[in-house]
């Protein structure tokens, strides 16, 4: 493969993708699926994101509000409480769902997490205010529609896509320590271990619990469910996609370090930064790698490969050096060899970063847009263009 020296900075020391721990070269998709993929999944689980529990003892989905006349009539809105009980611990999480009214057959669905509460994505007054705090420094809920610029609902729904979302703080507060009335508190026995259930783990696990419900709804096409997240929630979308093969496509928007970006480039955020500022996102074992970014026995391109042969789209922003755009691109591109085992050559076409605002679209996709770290209408439009290409012809 022709390699551009700058694009590949740091990649010469990458850990192997297609050689198993006992030295076997991985040459087929069966060998990948049965030998190498389980090895790597175990490494990322034990060393980075932490263990994932199974189902809680009880789980119940209750629709508490709905309207067929949402967003000026283009959508049907449903609000659902997911109530969970495990060994006497209980918690609940609210799921907000919009379905496109114009589509008569089951729709593709974006399943996402949001930063500020379901009520912050839209100005619709019926959306329940999330009373749980998103982070320990929050004093009160965010104002309604405070994050609406990140959620161009009319665009998404008018293109025939459904959207479902939950708030990060409704699942697990974004801070150190954990209260008992959240998803981590359902499984306290998974805390006192070095591969503990982490906050990114809890966010990702709850995406799968929402999926358990959503994939059974007649208005949704279970073959076209996309998990999407921005930044820390992009790291989460990747981890959810790795663990749950029911996600047909995984979209990482500006996920950066601990997400799409290669760690050993050490450009932008490092493992030391992640572990100092957000240790609880990951399991305790991850602390071992502080200062060892360049010698870690695993790296994020292997995480991308764990999603193969499903679709991955990675997006970066030009002014988001903290997330290392080239590291995000390179990681996805280097995962191509696993897609090849599945008969998908050049899953991400090209070996060089494309110019800004020129999305690469093939089996996988990538773009770098102008501007800062954010989730914008441009990003959504690019995801929809990419998904339309696959879904409208499948
Ligand atoms: C911080 C953090 C990043 C994270 C981002 C976000 O900048 O260092 O790792 O992706 O917050 O979630 O917005």
What value does the average pLDDT take? 95
Distance between the amino and carboxyl termini: 30 Å
Fraction of helical residues: 25-40%
Secondary structure tally, helices: 10
- Structural class assignment: alpha/beta
The outline comes out as globular
Q: Major sheet: order of its strands?
A: 1-2-3-5-4-6-7-8-10-9
Number of strands: 10
Write the layout of secondary structure elements.
Elements: H1 29-49, E1 58-70, E2 75-86, E3 89-100, E4 107-114, H2 153-158, E5 162-167, H3 168-171, H4 199-214, E6 220-230, H5 232-243, E7 249-253, H6 271-277, H7 300-305, E8 311-317, H8 325-334, H9 336-341, E9 360-361, E10 365-369, H10 377-391
Parallel strand pairs: 4-5, 4-6, 6-7, 7-8, 8-10
Antiparallel strand pairs: 1-2, 2-3, 3-5, 9-10
Bound molecules: alpha-D-glucopyranuronic acid.
Tell me what you see in this structure:
With 394 residues, the protein is of the alpha/beta class. 26% of the residues lie in helices and 21% in strands. The protein is built from 10 helices and 10 strands. It has helices spanning 29-49, 153-158, 168-171, 199-214, 232-243, 271-277, 300-305, 325-334, 336-341, 377-391, and strands at 58-70, 75-86, 89-100, 107-114, 162-167, 220-230, 249-253, 311-317, 360-361, 365-369. It has a 10-stranded mixed sheet, with helices on both faces. The longest helix has 21 residues, at 29-49. The two termini are 30 Å apart. The relative contact order is 0.14. The site of alpha-D-glucopyranuronic acid has 6 residues, from loops.
